[in-house]
Amino acid sequence: MALNPFSRPTKLMSFSSILLLLAMLMPLAKAQSPRETTIVLYLQDLASGPNATVVPITGIQGKPQSFTSFGTIFAVDDIITETPDKVSAQIGRAQGILVASSLSGSNVHVSMSLAFTNVEYNGSSLEIQGISRQFERYKEVSVVSGTGSFRYARGYATLETVFYDNKTSYSIIRCTVRLLPNIQ
């Protein structure tokens, strides 16, 4: 008598094999699910006066040098603090360049290093890059790399101006960085 492949013992064996396989794969699936790390910091940005931390360095001849004037390039060296308060603990510097990169003046290209000096991340940096849509409340840029504690970093950062004084061109920018774990 031939063995019926659809007999009850074969079905049970297939079902139990599947359960066993799923039980073995579940821990792997949990181990692979990335847990996001969030870091919130504040950039103290001053665009005028003798102590300016963001200054135009070049632009198109005959055109004004401003954030909305296509072709203007800025150097940035903002203090990074723990809280929005100007006298809050300094944890690093945001150093890089901004380029007014759209003809309409609505976008600025950001290429910046967040260089940490605080105890927890001293000597480490995060590299952010992307288009900052100037007239949107939240601007999102990519975290493209990092060094030290942030080696192989990947994720994104949102930039939001939480304070702006038009008279002094002083602003406080909340930078919320969301990182996936380093997989080395």
TrEMBL record:
Xref: Gene3D superfamilies: Allene oxide cyclase-like
GO CC, alphabetical: apoplast
Family statement drawn from the similarity comment of this UniProt entry: Belongs to the plant dirigent protein family.
PANTHER family: NUCLEOPORIN-RELATED
Protein name: Dirigent protein
Compartments in which it is found: Secreted, Extracellular space, Apoplast
Biological processes annotated in GO: phenylpropanoid biosynthetic process
